[in-house]
Every structure is written in C-alpha cells, then in structure tokens.
Amino acid sequence: MDPIEPGSPLSTDQRTFIDILRLRITGEVDSSTGTRARYSTDAGNYRIPPLAVVFPQHVDDVLIALECARTHQIPVTSRGGGTSCAGNAIGPGIVIDFTRHMNRVLHIDPENRTAIVEPGCIQTTLQAAAAPYGLRFGPDPSSHNRASIGGMVGNNACGPHATAWGRTADNVISLDCIDGHGRRFTAHTSHASDIPEVPGLAQLIDSHLAIIRRELGTFGRQVSGYSLEHLTPEKRRNLAAMLVGTEGTLVTILSVTVALVPVPTAPVLVALGYADMIQAADDVPTVLAHKPLAVEGMDARLVDVVRQHRGPGAVPELPEGTGWLLCEVGGENPEDSLARAHALAADAHTHATAIYPPGTQASALWRIRADGAGLGGRTPYDSLTGKGGEQAWPGFEDAAVPPARLGSYLRDFTALMQRYGIDGLLYGHFGDGCVHVRLNMPLADEAGVAHSRCFLEESAALCASHGGSVSGEHGDGRARSELLRFMYSPDLLDLFAQVKHLFDSQNLLNPGVLTAPMDKAHASQRLHARTHAASVEQARNLHPDIDPLDRYLRRPKARPILADNGFAFREDHGDFTQAIHRCTGVGKCRADISGSFMCPSYQASRHEKDVTRGRARILQDAANGQLIARIDSPEVLEALDLCLACKACSSDCPAGVDMAKYRSEVLFRRYRGRMRPLSHWTLGWLPRWTRLSARVPGLAAISNMVMKNNLIRRSIFSLIGLDTRRPMPSLQSGTFTRWARRRGLDSCVPQVEHASADEGQEVSQSDYCGEAQSYVRASRFVVVWADSFSQTLDDAGARAVVSVLEAQGFHVIIPEDACCGLTWITTGQLTGAKKRLTHLLGVLAPFAANGIPIVGVEPSCTAVLRDDLLDLLPDDPRSALVSGAVKTLAEVLTHIPKAERRLPDLSGIEVIAQPHCHHYSVMGWSHDRELLESLGAQVTIMEGCCGLAGNFGMERGHYDMSVAVAEHSLLPTLRSHPQAVYLADGFSCRTQAQQLAGRGGIHLAHLLAQGFQKTAST
Predict the structure, then answer these.
(1) Taking the CB of residue 824, how many other CB atoms lie within 10 A of it?
(2) What is the three-class DSSP state of 225?
(3) What is the DSSP letter of 702?
(4) What Cα–Cα distance (Å) separates residue 605 from each residue in 54, 73, 367, 608?
C-alpha cells in the first residue's frame, strides 16, 4: 500500500477502519492532522504521514490492532522513542507507539541476571530498575535516555559499550512476538532443528547454508539485512538473535527478556590525542589489545561546536591533537582500573594522553560524544564569514568496517567526501569499526538529491570493498535498504525476501524497508534471469518493492520561508525553513537528564505534541504545505500553545533548536495586520500599564485594593483572556529610577578628577555628565540596567544590586528607563519589540562603547540583550556592542579576585535555587553556583522551569500545564526544604512560588545584601 497522498483526506474505508479500532481497544487511536504530521517522520530524512497512531494500553490492544490491520490490509509500523535515523519508524498505515503506556519493567531476576520489559520501556528505566542489584543492560546507544528496548531490538542497537558487552542481539534471551500472519510465539536463543514456530524456515536456511556462511556474520558490526547466520545449525537455531535487527518487518514485539551484566567498578577514561581522525583509527587495534570497555572516536571540529554552543568551559582540557580516542577501562577495583588505564596509554602510538577518573570531566566528555548526532546536525558556523551552518543529514551515518580496516577506510571515505564536495563531522564507536557522520548533502532540490544519490551509492560500494556494513547499529530503513545490493549478492537478497514471505507474506509489517516478500517460484525465476544477465550491474538492479533511498525525502518538499521583518535567522541564512529543520529528531527533548531544563511541557504531559521535537515536526510539515497548509495554520498555533517559551531547547538541544524564537516568529506572522487575542495587549503591553500605575500617585494602591475583590478580578481576567484562578501580582508605587535619583545615583558617566588610564576605564568626553554634576573620584564604573519588572513591579532586587556593587567599590550608574521589549517578543509583536530595543540601544550603547559593564537584574530581560537583540537588530552595530557588555551580577562578582571581594559569609545557609530558564539557557548559571558555594552556602539547584514562564501561566488555558510543570521540580523542592532560602532572580519564578506554595523568594543580590546586614549587626 502506498502512503496516502500528503494532505488528502482519509477515505471512507480508512475512516471505517479507524472507527472500528477505536471501539475495540482501550488505548488511544489518534488520526488528527497534527498527530499524523508529528509521526510522519522519525530522526531520519523521510516523511510518510500515517493513517493514525495507536497508543496501546496492554498486549491485548496490540493483538486487536494487528488483527484489524490484517483484516483491512493496513500496514503496521512499530515505534519506540522515534529516534531511528534511517526512516524505519514511519509508515503509511498505523504507527503503534509503545512508549506512552507499554513502558514498564515487568520483572528483574538478579540471581539469573535477566529482566523482562515491555517494548516501550526506555533503556534508562531498565538501568534504574537493575541498578540496585549492581546490574545493567549492556548495550547503550547515545539515545539511551529516550530510546526504547523495543526500538533497540528492532535496530540491533549497540552503543559504545558493545565493545565489551556486544550488540542487542547478543543480550536478548527471548522475544514474545507475533508475525504478519497472526502467529504468536516466543523466540528463544535455541530452537528445535525444524523451527516449528515458523514453518518452512529451517528448510529454507538449510538449503542456503553456503551463502549464509560466506556472506553473513563476518564481523561484529555487520547488522545490515537479516542476520540469518544465527539460524544455522552451529548457532543452535537462535531465532531470538536473528529477529533482532529486522526493524519490525517480520514480527511485532510484545515483550523482551534480556540479559543483564554487572556494573563495572570505577571505570577510568583515557583520552588519546592524534594528528587527525585517521591516525586515531589506525591505532584502534593497539588499544583493543587492552580489552577496554569502550573506544570512541571524536573529531576536533565536534569539540569546537560544543565550545561555540555552550562556552569554552563546557569542554575539559584534552590532550593535544585534532582527533581523539576516548577509551574506558574497567578493573576489579579502582586501583586496578587506573593501572590498566596507564598501561593502555603507555602502549598507544601517541604521547598526547590524559587520564580522567570518574567525575565531572569524564562525564562531560562522554556527554559531548553522546550528543554527536545533534551537534553534527549542522556544519560549523563561522560568524565572521557567515559560512557554514548547513544542515547535515543522516543517510550514511553509521557504516562499519572491521576495526583493523578502519584507518584505510577513513582515508578512502574522506577522499570521496572531498571529491563530492560533501562535509561532515566524524565520530563513532571506533573500537567496533563503526563511524558516525552527518553529511551536508544538498537535499533541498532535485539536482542536489541526484548528486547525493551518486555519493551514497559510491559510499556503499566503498564500504563493501573494505569488508564493511552500510549499517553498524541504526538499521537499514529507507536510507540504506537499496544499498544492500552493493554489499550482498543478489542471491542473498532474494533469500531475505523469501524469509520475509514466511513471516509476512502480505507485506503489512513495515513495508518498503529491507525487503519485500517473495515466494519460492518467483525467486527461482529471478535466479534464472540472473544466470543469463548481460552484466553484473544488471543483476544488481534495485530489489523489487522496497523504497528507493530518494523516495519520500522530507526536505525537498519544504518551501523557503524567508525572514520578513521579524527575526533575521542569521545562522540559518535568513530562512525560517532552515531554522526549523535544525531539529534532526534525535529526541533529547524527550529524555530525563539530570541538570537539563528541556522540555518542561513534555515532562508534565509525556505527549509528543508537547515536546520540542513534536513542535518542530509540525513546523516542518507546515513548511511543505501538504498536511498542514501554512506556517500560521491552526495546527501550528495549537502545537505552540503550550510551549512555555523557556528557551531551554536553545541550550539543551544539541542541534540548537530555539522553539521560543520560532513561537514568536509564528505569532508575528499570524497576527501581523490582524486582530490579536486580548491577552497580547494586556500582557504583551504590560510594561506600559505598570509604568502608568507606578508613576501616577495612588493608582497602584487603588488597583491592588480593587483586584483583591475576587469577583471583580475574575470578571476582569475572564474578559481579557487570563486564567481566573490566578491572583493578581501586587503593583508597585514608584519606579526604581525615581528611587535612584532620590539617592543621588548618576545617569551618565561623571567626570573623574585626575583619573588616568591605568586607574580605570577610559571614557569619551561626550559621555560625561553636565557641569552641574559633582566631581567624583572612582576607579570602576558599572551600569545597573533595571528592566520593566524591576522598574515597576518589584525593585527590591535592583536596589540590592546597587548596594552589592557599591560595596565592591564600583561607581554605579543608573541610565534612563528603557524597556527591552520582552513581553512584545513573547507575544509575537516583533515590530514593537524592535522599536523598544532601538531606543534601548541609544541609552546603553554609549556605556558599552566605553567598556563599562551593564548589569541586568531580571534574567529574562538580560537574556533578550544577550541573545534576541542580535537576531532582531542584526544590522545595527550597537547590538553586538551592547550584547557583549551585558553581564549578570554573578558574572561581575566572580570576575573580581576573591581577595578583593567584599561579600558576606553564607556558611550555614541552605539555599534552594530556581535558575530562571532564560538565565540557564542564555547566560548559564555556573557563575551563580560558583559564587554561592565560594561563600559557604549549601546550594540545591532545581531542575526545570517554574511553570509560570512570564505571561504563559497567566493566560487562559495554561494554568493546569503551569501547575503540572511546577510539580516537576519547584513545588516538591519547596516542600522538602521548608526552612531553606528560596533564591529566584526571576520575577515569574518568585510569583509562581508565592501563588502556589505561599513561599516568598529573593534575588541573589538581596541574599548578599541581607548577608551584609547580618554581618554588620554582629
């Protein structure tokens, strides 16, 4: 069955099938346009909208769904975390997502070291269940914190520790499964000689033993095609291992029994530096002689991407080189591990070595390697030249060769890349000969696709010439199924097709992938035709009924959406379409990762529609205009509605997706010249209203009194689109600037009596205050910029910032009141935001030009100047100047030598800190933590968004999600630390805690200022 024509309505028969399915199963069946768009692609290059997505509650639901599919001749695709890179988790019929409900660990047997899991069980869930027994599941792909065990079985996943513990196929004990004919059976590691579970299979295998023994099982990472070598008599008819890696084309998995291995004792990481990746590859055989647990290759350019994305401090110091091997070594105890590590380093053919015991540095290096698929999703961008930043695609991202051939293979492969003008960052499981690389193949038009096809065909032939496999762990899928003809003989390919016929003769299980069913008569006809073929090339023609690698590509259908007076999308060549295609689908946003903030709405709902990837898929589908017509279609607005605009993805997503920016751009395009929701005027223009209430005497007090009347407040909130369950934050009478002027603080640079260049910053004469100002002697100037929240709603933090900086000897300057336009940005009023930013540049640029740091108070507004400003006003030279001058308080204070800091002792003070999402994502919170710990505070850092997220939690329809997000970290932490100081620089973070937990919070500056007062009182 061909996929439904994109954008076409479902037929009557298809709707009848879906209706029947809904009636018969207890789980959900979703055929909405949005869900079909979200599940039309995985982490690969392809797009096939399904008829519907099924979320089974239990095994009976799966059995009923499969029965209905057979009756109505509807194809079935099994799906786990959707992280498959080869287009093998998408399909034209129903997609069964096992991860929503069938995701449990059913049993752990520590004595026999086994576990039984449902197919949707995430690998880290299994690891957590096994950890109390000192056990773990051996294979661990980089996507282990969002990949399901069922998906790992489907692709025969491996990961870095396959060097020690083998592939998934080597760790599966049995599979409870059902084939395409409806036969349910358990596949074990050994079966009777006739394999009665699948009639005719043993006879077919035994009649082709010679070709199986010759072409299959030649090295560990040969996972392409069907691993029929496991069914030979000498392998004891290991049907379980053979079914691993068949990508859902032969059976549907109902449960999996896996083997567990002991957790290694204190593994040590050894980094070996080489002149390039090829020399690193050449040394792999030497390293393998030491039997390491893992051997990973990492390119210097991958490390450079991390430094650009997360800052230099994100990468521990590495030994000299531009290519590295990361080798993990275990032992019987920590001392033994360390001794083995030193022995490995001594034998390596390099003097550039470093050894990292378990700890933060080793974890950081492993994290870089784990994020490779996302980090490699773009070629490195050069901000000076504007070059780079092209999309890099999977397609040939996990080819493998015998490790002894790895160096020579990489020489030939990199030469082939250069000949085709194709670039990519090399990394991978070098200990197993597996190379990962995302390639900037030109997939945007037909000519580029044709060029890419030629490259892929030559790449497959090259890999085969080195005795390799076109897939080393990700499966063949639609990306590589047709490339099997360069790797295997036509006779073996036809054998695969005959095996498919025995399991799924109607071709309903993941059709188009790997092979298609072929009966014995058809196979005999093809053998006869090949015998008389004119050439080898004719005999290697595309195998029938599998999808060609250039069919159903997603990117060529996407239309350019050029920047149009909103964001400039500088790093995406001015094209919104390129920006939204940053999402490669690797799904890190679905993972539970300690220290990560992404993605708060998914953490609350666990639904694909509420995760960064799901939203990106909707935007991508809108760019091709087929299922979803336009970028401002209702489905797009629905997908973005529960996005908190927290910007966590801009930091945590290895591909650099910034959904907050995309959301603002969509709202800008949707409502430009049209009527907006009332909440856009009330909350989007909030700085206007609060300035009015703060400046008009008595107005704030009257407003506060009126809004305490619940009936009045609910009526007003209902009218303007706010949630009536929310209290009204108190308005402030008077502004911070008025306070500063009463205190005598300058608004510009005062003249400095007898100041010389070596005493402080140089300032231009034009920035001096007028003659009426008093002369001041000062060695250091600093600007405190109070945003709209700190000006008119809660200026306690801004006042405290002034006090703390003055205590350090700074001369504090308070410029005229200027808004950054944050609330205009979050509501998509980008024209208004640009007006305010342009005015703000006029206020702040003179200070920045003189090298005077500008300290922000509210993190979200500080982040606007550090990030959004650069892409809203990229052609104004003052943007980069001001952005570079803006600092957080902690950044300024930690820059002062410790001996010169005048800060309080916080010993004995317990602090629970809620980093504002924008602070975490744009500026980073490491300086704040370093500062607090250096002062003796005991710091617990909350993970994730508070849930209010500016205007999000105030708007109608968002309250339940806002509270659910708060329950992820904020509220449980507040409950478990009732006596701790709640530290939150963000106004919304303090407001959320006050409204939901009755717990007041303070700004970092306020905490430090209070410390001064306590010190003075003692």
Answers:
(1) 25
(2) coil
(3) H
(4) 17, 33, 26, 9
Q: How many CA atoms lie within 13 A of 977 on its CB side?
A: 21
Is 811 in a helix, a strand, or coil?
Answer: strand
Q: Output the six-digit token pair for 320.
A: 């000299």
What burial class does residue 676 get, using C-beta atoms within 10 Å of its C-beta: 0-12 exposed, 13-18 middle, 19+ buried?
Answer: middle
- For residue 305, the one-letter residue type is V
- In terms of Cβ atoms closer than 10 Å to its own Cβ (0-12, 13-18, 19+), residue 637 is middle
Contact 80, 57 (CB under 8 A): no
What is the chain's alpha carbon radius of gyration, rounded to the nearest angstrom?
Answer: 31
Q: Where are the beta strands (DSSP E) in 790-894?
A: 811-813, 854-856, 886-887
CA distances in angstroms from 213 to 105, 469, 472, listed in the order given: 37, 16, 19
pLDDT of 72 strictly over 80 = yes
Edge-to-edge strands, sheet with 910-913: 938-941, 910-913, 981-983
Is omega for the bond preceding 599 within 30 degrees of 0, making it cis? yes
Q: Mean pLDDT across the stretch 657-682?
A: 95
pLDDT of residue 592: 86
Whether 528 shows a pLDDT value over 90: the answer reads no
The residue among 444, 611, 526, 501 whose CA lies nearest residue 180 is 501
Beta bridge partners of 428: 297
pLDDT for 8 beyond 70:
no
Residues 6+ apart with CB under 8 A from 464: 470, 486, 487
Cα distances from 739 to residues 429, 735, 798, in angstroms, run: 61, 7, 10
768 phi and psi, to 5 degrees? Answer: -70, 150
The rounded distance, in Å, linking the Cα atoms of 424 and 784 is 44
Torsion of CA 97, 102, 108, 113, to 10 degrees: -20
How far apart are the C-alpha atoms of 1013 and 1018, rounded to whole Å? Answer: 9
What does the buried/exposed string (b/e) look like for 295-316 if buried means 16 or more CB atoms within 10 Å of the residue's CB? bbbbbbbbbebbebbbeeebbb
Q: How far apart are CA 979 and CA 234, in angstroms?
A: 67
Give the HSE-up count for residue 976: Cα atoms under 13 Å, Cβ half-sphere. 10
Distances (CA, A) of 738 to 690, 791, 799: 14, 9, 11
